[in-house]
């Protein structure tokens, strides 16, 4: 009976200090780090997010404005391009975040922005449905970061 209570309420056995008291110096240091993050990293992340949103939205505009005819895309190929982008984005979200933890943010963000840019250039020179689909899949992989 006691074992069942321990399984149901394991936190009763733990001696956890839920209140963390920081010294005045540690509080000031924490504030300075948060301010540094807000002023240096946050603007870069916001610009990357806006570019990502524009990129996701532009595929619909491009398909409507002649991309379908220039690449001879069938309706199923149009759906595949959009679906595969989303699938790659979802599949590589977790691995990209694990890599971010291992690498410095400066290195990781530089890499994904450069790779993302190369994928956009590859989209511009795509001459077939397969090229376009590959480029969109790669774009989903790099946007996941």
Automatic annotation (TrEMBL):
Gene3D superfamilies: MFS general substrate transporter like domains
A Gene Ontology term for the protein's cellular component: membrane
Lineage: Eukaryota, Fungi, Fungi incertae sedis, Zoopagomycota, Kickxellomycotina
A Pfam family the protein falls into: MFS_1
Xref: PANTHER family: PERMEASE-RELATED, TRANSPORTER, PUTATIVE (AFU_ORTHOLOGUE AFUA_6G08340)-RELATED
Major facilitator superfamily (MFS) profile domain residues: 41-145
Ranges annotated as spanning the membrane: 41-59, 79-100, 107-125
Gene Ontology MF: a single term: transmembrane transporter activity
Alphabetical UniProt keywords: Membrane, Transmembrane, Transmembrane helix, Transport
Name this polypeptide is given: Putative transporter
Subcellular location: Membrane
Mode of membrane association: Multi-pass membrane protein
